[in-house]
Amino acid sequence: MRSRNSPASAAASGKDEGAYWKAVKAGDFVSLRDAEAFDLELAAGKDAGSDYAVGEVRSFILRGREDGARLGEYRFIELTKDGTGPLYLTLAELEGAFELRLYFIPEGLRCGTRDELIDSGNTWLFLPPPDPEDFKSCDLEYAPYPDVPEVEETDSESGQPRSRKLLYSPAGSGKSLYGEAADTRAAAIITEYAAEAPPGEDPPSNPLLLVLEEGWMRGGSQPEEGGYLTILLGKTMRPGDIEHFPA
Length: 247
Prior knowledge:
Layout: H1 10-13, H2 18-22, E1 29-32, H3 36-42, E2 51-63, E3 70-80, E4 87-94, E5 97-104, E6 112-113, H4 114-119, E7 151-154, E8 161-164, E9 167-170, E10 177-181, E11 187-196, E12 208-214, E13 228-237, E14 242-245
Antiparallel strand pairs: 1-2, 1-14, 2-3, 2-10, 3-4, 4-5, 5-13, 6-13, 7-8, 9-11, 10-11, 11-12, 12-13
């Protein structure tokens, strides 16, 4: 059995400060108290509240497009556990405020370059080009209300997975955030959406959709195939529902 350091008490932990979560590093462990939906979707039968090992930690520095001033940081903390796909505990820090979120890469929503997504028929993320017969994928604009394919949700009554169509609209300021990866300095764009259920249906268990595009920025040097897109679904987390155990 492995050993680990005990977490600090709630009063002294500083969980309500972004600096606390920036201290999470590869090799640490994280315990989630509110992970039932993710375990049902990623590995049925896993107990909520079990430990995850911290893998790769990646940070993206957000900057103003006009003056380049630092606006904030999005930090993606990879959480791994035997028998599941990775989760991403995300520190979203913008203009002095922060929020914790938990994301996963959903089955059925493909990741890849813009060209790869378009060639496979996944055009729902972008506005139609003026000329559908003559365009470059790097010139396409993100759709403000994307027609996202059906996503797998957990039925609130049966606890079983189900697929359903949700309604997505812009989240936050409604505008994409621009910056660069702290490790590679590659340009990056973060675009966020929030989902609602159709009238009369229960709310979605994972209402947040985040698109991270790396390696491309409008106005700069850009490959015609566009940047690489990672598509994530998730929800907000309360700091008190997460325990951090330093290695």
